[in-house]
Design brief:
alpha/beta, six-stranded parallel beta sheet, two-stranded antiparallel ribbon, binds S-adenosylmethionine
């Protein structure tokens, strides 16, 4: 099965905790296997681990990584690197080529990203050429990559599952006995 990992660049623990947590939750909800964070932040690792344990499926978070080493290793193993940036080639023009590739490392920034990533990426991809958000960009990228199928995936192995309702909230506890 294809591996999809998100690499979060530029995380500042004092400012970006909420946004980086949302990047991780979006990655998990839309079919990525894990997230690498290019700064140490154990609290995000713990928050997302807790959510994955309660709501199901495996999702890893590793913070404090050396991003250039990770990108080189990923490419060395034959994986491809997609850097999401408003300055790139618009998604509809490259998504078929990306889908045909194997494992994918999806890179998103916080503020300005290091210039080297533009050269290291196999594709610099814009989700439209207007500035918006890494969370929105990642969600649309993963949704298009999977052709919308992740919206109907049932997450297995968790403690909780939503029972979809037109009104009110219903969550059921799942027994694994
Ligand atoms: N001017 C910055 C730049 O270099 O793209 C904007 C930073 S933006 C607040 C944070 C991240 O959101 C970017 O690093 C990129 O990953 C993502 N992003 C924002 N707009 C995007 C777009 N239109 N297409 C793809 N990614 C986008």
């Amino acid at each position: 099965m294809r591996q999809i990992v998100v690499l979060r660049l530029g995380h500042r623990p004092e400012r970006d905790q909420r946004m980086t947590t949302h990047v991780g939750l979006t990655a998990r909800a839309f079919g990525a296997n894990g997230m690498l964070i290019a700064a140490q932040d154990m609290s995000i690792e713990k928050n997302i681990d807790d959510i994955a344990r309660r709501w199901g499926e495996k999702f890893f978070v590793r913070s404090g990584i050396k991003w250039k080493d990770e990108v080189r290793e990923w490419k060395g193993r034959g994986g491809k690197v997609c850097h999401l940036t408003m300055y790139g080639i618009n998604l509809p023009d490259v998504i078929d080529d990306v889908r045909a590739a194997g494992d994918i490392l999806v890179v998103v920034g916080a503020e300005k990203v290091p210039a080297e990533i533009y050269g290291m990426a196999d594709w610099n991809i814009a989700i439209g050429n207007q500035p918006h958000s890494e969370v929105a960009a990642l969600a649309i990228f993963l949704d298009r990559l999977h052709k919308g199928r992740e919206l109907s995936r049932v997450f297995k192995g968790g403690e909780l599952q939503v029972v979809p309702r037109e009104r009110n909230k219903e969550v059921r506890r799942v027994s694994h006995e």
